[in-house]
Fold these 2 entries.
Entry 1:
Amino acid sequence: MSKQDELKQQAAAKAVEFVPENEYIGIGSGTTVNFFIEALGKSGKKVKGAVSTSQKTSELMAQYGIAEISANDVTRLAVYIDGADEINHTLQMIKGGGGAHVPEKIIAQLADQFICIADESKYVTRLGKFPLPIEVLPMARSMVARQLVAMGGQPELRIGYHTLHGNDILDVRGLDLSQPLSVERQLNAITGIVDNGLFAEKSADLLILARSNGVELINPHV
Ligand code: 5RP
């Protein structure tokens, strides 16, 4: 296992401590979350059920005996556990490297608490090195791309990939993300964009960050 994977596994294992029993929870997507599902399954802790954000997450949940529930069948989730592609010091994030940021944002909205699990490479002072994923309706792809170029971005179509809802993803480099909240809103005001991978409106409440010298809990909101 790579050093980075070891750190992802440590952050994921720590997150199990924050899962309340007999509650509904939300589970994100990605390799860090895969470690979390495994750790939760092996812990013997029992949740009432979990809302999943991707096919892979659903498959792993089934493998570890975690019951899946639809987002439409719950009014709240006690906690949402997910990874990030980048997370800054106020816990705003870029997500969607795996293309699942739209279901992730929906499920995060339902949760009382969003816990991000990450290895130290994801913790940045400024968002934007990682290209920003934007989910677009296929018929709006070129029109949206031109508007992104006008904003200073360099969009690139994610070739051979369609989201859970059959849409396209534009990965965008070069945008000025120094004000993540206003960029998130500005992008979502463009017709044809389903949602973008900035999580500033709904930032994380707690970051479980695995560093080579140990696991740190970061909560700048207290
Ligand atoms: C998927 C995501 C993931 O959380 C993000 O890509 C991090 O993935 P990983 O844990 O594999 O590094 O947002 O849409």
Entry 2:
Amino acid sequence: MSDLIHYRLDDGLALIGLDRAPVNALDQSMRAAISEACERAAADSRVQAIILYGVHGLFSAGADITELGTDISLAEPDLPSTLVRLTEIHKPLVAAIGQLALGGGLELALACGYRIAEPGTRIGLSEIHLGLLPGAGGTQRLPRLIGAESALNLILSGEQIGAERARILGILDRIASGADQLLDEARAYAYELISCSAPARPAEVWPEPAEGLPDDFITRYRAEHESRWKSRLAPRLVVSALESACLLPLEEGLARELALFKQAEASRQSKALRHVFFAEREAACIPGIESDLPLRKIEKVAVIGAGTMGGGIAMSFASAGIPVVLLELSGAALDHGLMQIRKNYEASVKRRTLTAQQLEQRMELLFGTLDYGDLSDADLVIEAVVEKMEIKQQVFRSLDEVCKPGVILATNTSSLDVDAIAAAVSRPQDVIGLHFFSPANVMRLLEVVRGCATAPEVVATTMKIAKRIGKLPVLSGVCFGFIGNRMLEPYAREAHRLVLEGATPTQVDGVLTGLDLNMGVFSMLDLAGIDVSFLIRDSNRTATAHDDSYCRLGDELYAMGRYGQKSGRGFYLYEGRNRQEDGEVVALSERLAADLNVSRRSISDQEIHDRCLFMLINEGIQLLDEGIALRASDIDLVWINGYGFPAHLGGPMHYAEHLGLDKILSGIQHHRRALGEYGEIWFRPASLLERLVAAGRNRIERL
Ligand code: T1G
């Protein structure tokens, strides 16, 4: 018997324990081990019932993602066939589910006749997050257990649900009284089944999964949800698989599911999403910082500034159960900030994602003050005041006076020089940048900006606390704009310049959202505030001194008081959330073009795509070469989680590799020639891009 399985015969029961750290991933060896153990139990006349469980608690996190996209993924014994065989065993199989059953792990449990779980168990079919659909019976067995509509919603959401909800839906038969009692209560359940001569598998609860649903349920479901799926393939394949479950006998439905799964697994989108899965885990690995480096304790946090950013940051910690002292300059500002935080939580209560009791628990963790002295025992202080260097330096000088030794002093600046801020205090080794994205209580991305003096354990501690508050930390070096906003600059520059040259904001944004970006440049700037981007641009005028043509449109709109959504007019006109083109902006663009001697012409969508995306990619490659970003996949994570770049394209770097680095370089060289003086100034290929192409490489990494 494989050491991946603990096999024990115990008074008529075969106890089969899965033991493959860390998550009992169902790779080829584990599939073979499970198959062998179940066959052994099925053939043993002393065995009257079989229990499957996780030796270390966790049941299984599904197929081994490292196998997906390779020929081992469906190597024998493949998971679909293994699970069909389990359903043919003429003895009750009980899945004793501890902690987690995801993807193929839940499909394994569904192939058992009976399921019992510990109270804290989370279960789900998470394949959709990898651009897949359940490929081992999930789309066929689940609808026969809980009905087609519930199954469709659960599979498309990819969400993890708790034990009680799973029991109510009908996925679980029982919930054990506790994690420690799970196996004993699973054994008792098995003896009950034996004593009442229960069948190996109970009758299907939903033999007709679509029973009670309109005949056109699937057609209407597609029509209702299609637009939200954008160009994503997996949701469409899921619906097709559920349609098969409603129309076909199980065996034919399973065959249809497998065909659809293979199509999804081979898709570019799934490859991109698998890249993102591993990128998120690799982002935590920082060369030179060992995973066992002692960390500083963070038990109390202080936030300076109770505005939109400061309030959102304070919420992030309070929601994780960490006490927060929130400091403001005036009582009115402090009261407003705390009131806004309560309002944000109340909105969650209204959405039923938070209980009223949890709201109060979180508010009790928030303590407002006007006195710096109340920050003296904080372990981490995060400054979130206005984006002006002199003000931030003053705040840090005050913190230097009152805070205890060993405190971590963080700035939430979105682009200013963290080293210049650190230079204002006597302990620069304790200073770091924590760039939260707005709204800070919602956005996962956190750019952790390491200064030249930042101590290693300060980096390691902040990377860890970021995960604890549910953020995705990505390490950045110090430069203007760090990773995300540094890349936003050339990307937005091309968008602005294209509008001067004859495109409209609607056309430019249409090309970008056509690529499935959540927002185009102009709608994003209108949301963030044209006044905000003006202040950032104004703090960095030297960078555009040689040609600020593309800045003029934003500067003019700012001067006109057109700040975007907040003022009802920006690049677009707004009536509530309804956005429409504004002829005045087109006229302004024409006037500026004349002033700047920029000739106007009709511009193709392809040119818009290439100029915006190639310059975004070029800047990312430059950041990698400068060592600001550790790896290309970190850059992908920043743009997926901070700027709405589609995860099913894998991020801008992964997308670049798909397009071909040689194509990108030649595109940049083409526009450099075609755009005259402007092209000469701005379309400079990153040296690393040229070196990679010259070396015949298509993978973006430092050479
Ligand atoms: N395969 C391989 N490795 C996995 C894995 C998996 N399914 N899940 C986790 N790991 C690794 C992960 O890379 C990391 O490795 C370590 O485990 C800890 O993970 C047929 C085809 C389970 C909730 O989508 O959601 O089944 O970095 O850091 O925060 O229909 O991992 O330590 O070397 O994330 O506690 C469906 C994906 C697969 C589950 C744990 N299953 N995993 O989170 O730890 S497709 C999933 C997760 C499928 C079937 C189809 C999370 C987690 P390392 P971690 P965590």
